[in-house]
Amino acid sequence: MVALEADENKTGVDIVVPLQRFHSIAGVVEAKADGHRVNAGTVRLTSPNDPSFNRVASVQKDGTFEFDLVPAGTYVARVEDAKDSQGRLIQTDGRMFYTVDTMHEFGPAQEQILLQTTDVTNVVLSVRQ
């Protein structure tokens, strides 16, 4: 066994991390009313069994999100600050700026996820306006 203190380095030690025990959780955020994908927001992944487990992913432009290297267990994925947004260029004082306008805001949504021996790639978080 090798023990390390804060800010301590050791050489000549090989560490093996069994990556086959880690998986991905992925999915989409969609509007419950019409099923369109929401293009902005934050998805938080927590574990009811491990209060220290807390990961955050951004909702991508295509409505998707993903968490990698997640160990098997039970999790809750919760979307916050979900919104439809649209970017545009504006000119002020002779300079161009990119700004993002919020078109619609949505409430939170969450799903419980059981991650066992394979990736979970079909999570759907349906948000209400």
Features:
mainly beta; 129 residues; 5-stranded antiparallel sheet; Immunoglobulin-like; 3-stranded mixed sheet
Give your account of this protein's structure.
This protein is mostly beta strands. It has one domain (22-127): Immunoglobulin-like, CATH 2.60.40. The chain is built from no helices and eight strands. It has strands at 22-31, 40-47, 50-58, 64-71, 73-92, 95-105, 109-115, 120-127. Strands 2, 3, 5, 6 and 7 form a five-stranded antiparallel β-sheet that branches. A hairpin with a 2-residue loop joins strand 2 (40-47) and strand 3.
Regarding CATH, which class? Mainly Beta
**Counted beta strands:** 8
Quote the distance from N terminus to C terminus.
53 Å
Count of all domains: 1
Largest sheet: 5 strands, antiparallel
Low-pLDDT stretches are none
Which secondary-structure class do the elements indicate? mainly beta
One letter per element, helices H and strands E, the order comes to EEEEEEEE
CATH topology: Immunoglobulin-like
Choose one word for the global shape.
extended
Mean pLDDT, to the nearest integer, reads 93
Instruction: Provide the CATH architecture.
Output: Sandwich
Entry summary:
The chain has 129 residues and is mainly beta. It has strands at 22-31, 40-47, 50-58, 64-71, 73-92, 95-105, 109-115, 120-127. It is extended, with a radius of gyration of 20 Å.
What topology does this entry show?
Blueprint: E1 22-31, E2 40-47, E3 50-58, E4 64-71, E5 73-92, E6 95-105, E7 109-115, E8 120-127
Parallel strand pairs: 1-8
Antiparallel strand pairs: 1-4, 2-3, 2-5, 5-6, 5-7
